[in-house]
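Q: Can I borrow your eye for a moment on a structure tokenisation matter? Would you mind producing a protein record, from residues through to fold? Write it directly below this note and I will take it from there.
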Amino acid sequence: MAAAPAAAGSGAGRGRRAAATVAAWGGWGGRPRPGNILLQLRQGQLTGRGLVRAVQFTETFLAERDKQSKWSGIPQLLLKLYAASHLHSDFIECQNILKEISPLLSMEAMAFVTEERKLTQETTYPNTYIFDLFGGVDLLVEILMRPTISIRGQKLKISDEMSKDCLSILYNTCVCTEGVTKRLAEKNDFVIFLFTLMTSKKTFLQTATLIEDILGVKKEMIRLDEVPNLSSLVSNFDQQQLANFCRILAVTISEMDTGNDDKHTLLAKNAQQKKSLSLGPSAAEINQAALLSIPGFVERLCKLATRKVSESTGTASFLQELEEWYTWLDNALVLDALMRVANEESEHNQGASEENGLPHTSTRTQLPQSMKIMHEIMYKLEVLYVLCVLLMGRQRNQVHRMIAEFKLIPGLNNLFDKLIWRKHSASALVLHGHNQNCDCSPDITLKIQFLRLLQSFSDHHENKYLLLNNQELNELSAISLKANIPEVEAVLNTDRSLVCDGKRGLLTRLLQVMKKEPAESSFRFWQARAVESFLRGTTSYADQMFLLKRGLLEHILYCIVDSECKSRDVLQSYFDLLGELMKFNVDAFKRFNKYINTDAKFQVFLKQINSSLVDSNMLVRCVTLSLDRFENQVDMKVAEVLSECRLLAYISQVPTQMSFLFRLINIIHVQTLTQENVSCLNTSLVILMLARRKERLPLYLRLLQRMEHSKKYPGFLLNNFHNLLRFWQQHYLHKDKDSTCLENSSCISFSYWKETVSILLNPDRQSPSALVSYIEEPYMDIDRDFTEE
């Protein structure tokens, strides 16, 4: 790097500077044009050679060029900053220079974020771009990291105020100039160092926001166990800081993924799992473990998630933080929206007061409550996300135990009406550039995150009964007693001191809002998923009846049949829920027949089922399993349902079963199998396992063969099925796969699943139950390698 410029009064100094300038331009003797200078700087930035910083120019030269190019004096200020930031500096002059630079960048960044840049006077080279191009970003990184340098055993110190200015300028540059954030993300030592700046309340918000942006573009996930004194750092956060820190944690504990988990092929996932096993725990898993080892971490998250608005920070400190937010661009938009809501509240209250002859409340006194509610919503969003990810991680049981112990579920139940599913004005708060129905709205996002948490909490775990209150648990016991069946062991083992209080538990509250949800609502999918997770696992008659008594089945059928729902995602979630609700339950089938009481309604229902078997196959599976059980029972009530129910009569027909079986096998292939559609393969297996029980497996295979020929594609379907079953063995017989889900969903032992697949894959062409017996030799194609590279 070039030395600081010599004194302006020295002739020799002037000569050396002139020579240096000419040398920098490759010996070109003319006056360099501004565009050329910027191009050279840009090349130097990319290569690390040549021109890279303002210090490589003289102040006179930069001042002259600034007059032509209108760089706002930024290169000269950087030249002064470089000179004032030497190791023995007291940094007072540095801070004064930063105060000059900061407004030049912040106004530009504000315009950029609020999309007003089109209205502002366009400049060829924005200030943030010039600041970065002349080495400003690298210089600020060096200044910020001075405390890591020791001189004679003494570590250098810079003030919080100066750190704050550096962070603000860096953030503004990241916002406006492409590539800066990625370059900062590549400086791993700097990213780790940033965490240490969060120990100060004065610099916390700026540091946290910059870290969040950097981690969002970082190619490799940072490891929290590399952060110095992580446990002490997090333990010393106040509740506000911890809530904001959750925004960073959201990036560090979620597996880095390029797309929707359900859309990734199982081949790719299996290959990734094999690779991961050889590499050990992922960075996300290591980070989750690091957080869970911090004393009181989960307890504090539960307190944050369940605190009421009145328990949050006082007005004075809250407004002080909002003032910081206003200068911090990412949140200024939120404040703008809050101001708008507050003004509308004020106008409404003023009108009401004039009618009643009462003095009206000013906007100034109305504003804090609106702010505090949205403030709390945005905090809870981040906290619930972190808890949800931890609930789905390797330490799930540990997290479940702590969440139950710290009464997260009763706390959320108490917040349900007033905050989570609160009634708000038609002008619900939305972020800049979005509308009220956008999924980015804080209100909407909080609801979705809450529903995702309930789904993760209830899924295949006995703690799901904490979603009920004591009276509702007693109702479950009464249902079992009346039906003369044993009480569910998990209900008996539920700690009554940890369940919901009040008149209704969380599950009941969810059912109430679910039934009131508009047909086009985006919440329907998540609501159905959350309720379905409560029913998953070993089928419980008492659980089903609890929901049936609250009109859930009729609500689902109304949505599928009468509202003729068009959303594929919502339909799939409703079909899955309906299947779990009706499985093996005679009363549910009676209710179904009572609601679907005309052929016209039944045809609409069948049309919805047949429109996409990927969406409806779980219901087909549940009805098929129920039919098989009912046919083996000797009971008048069951016999009555079997004779009257249109759905059971439809499924009982062999042509219907064969039609489903043919289409289920035909719509999937090994290369396109995902977590979403693999259920089609398992449903086809259920149909064949039940046929095997009745010694009709050869018949079903022979009928599949005939259907192949009738479609003019001999061997196509059975070859595909053979490959699918080979993959099934590879996928489900792996030692880390949990087979209990297949057993619980079907009430068929996993050993019977394995035996059936082995029989179907038997290479003996003389076996009447082997697939190869029904594939003619010329069309045989069963040894294809489907391994994904």
Remarks:
- The chain has a mean pLDDT of 82.
